[in-house]
Amino acid sequence: MLYKHLFLFGGSPPFTLNMAKQFVIKASTNDSVSILFVERDGWEQYMPRYTQALEDLGLNGFYYLPLPSTPIEKVVDCLKNSSGIIIGGGDTNLYADYIVETSISNTIKERYDLGIPVAGFSAGALISPEFCIISPKDNEQNEFQFRKGLGLISDVLIAVHFTQWNDETHLRNSVNKFNNHLNYGIDENTCVYFLNGHLESIEGKGVYSLENDIIRKIN
């Protein structure tokens, strides 16, 4: 049986310590790890935030894939030869535009289904479920938005920067819109790890869930 591994972080990198160890274990082959991110000035100096914790554990090969300047064909080729996939943070709608709404999404899903670990930070976490739920604090229109996600997990709603953005109202709106879904508000410096689509473990500051109209801390 193939095991599917998804690491969702509530904020920016780096990896939390134990989740870095778990990611390296799942990705431990001779192939490189792909890092997908929306391109911005100075991105080269920012990449060690993603890689340093993994390098400290012996993982040394990386494909840096800035979007949209990297041709989709190159992105797909790198993903097909990767032992792990990292999706960065930034403008969530741009991540959905450049990844979910292209053939890149199909390759990520195929690799994930084959047991290649996927890690998403902030925007990367938000686009990972079936539905990408976007906070008013995360778009220029300052409104609740939702759009198609990668579909790596189903029936799960994710909110990020939860305590830092004071985003309880956003999580409530998400649950009202998509009832009968599990829901998790993830703090910065926090990771939730899903094994085969089910919450397996948590590391970090805090994860919250709306249950019976009450926000509860679940770790």
- 3D shape: globular
Q: How many β-strand stretches?
A: 13
What class, by secondary structure content? alpha/beta
Helix percent band: 25-40%
| Sequence of secondary-structure elements | EHEHHEHEHHEHEEEHEEEEE
Polypeptide structure, described:
With 219 residues, the protein is of the alpha/beta class. 29% of the residues lie in helices and 31% in strands. The chain has 8 helices and 13 strands. The chain has helices at 17-26, 43-46, 48-55, 72-80, 92-100, 104-113, 123-126, 168-177; strands spanning 5-9, 32-38, 62-67, 82-87, 118-121, 131-134, 145-148, 156-159, 182-186, 190-195, 198-204, 207-211, 214-217. The protein has a 7-stranded mixed beta sheet with strand order 3-2-4-5-1-10-11. A 4-stranded mixed beta sheet has the order 8-9-12-13, with helices on one face. Strand 12 and strand 13 form a beta hairpin. Helix 4 packs parallel to helix 6. The longest helix is centred in the N-terminal third of the chain and has 10 residues, at 17-26. The chain is globular, with a radius of gyration of 16 Å. The mean pLDDT is 96.
List the helices and strands and how they pair.
Layout: E1 5-9, H1 17-26, E2 32-38, H2 43-46, H3 48-55, E3 62-67, H4 72-80, E4 82-87, H5 92-100, H6 104-113, E5 118-121, H7 123-126, E6 131-134, E7 145-148, E8 156-159, H8 168-177, E9 182-186, E10 190-195, E11 198-204, E12 207-211, E13 214-217
Parallel strand pairs: 1-5, 2-3, 2-4, 4-5, 8-9
Antiparallel strand pairs: 1-10, 6-7, 9-12, 10-11, 12-13
Helix pairs in contact: 4-6
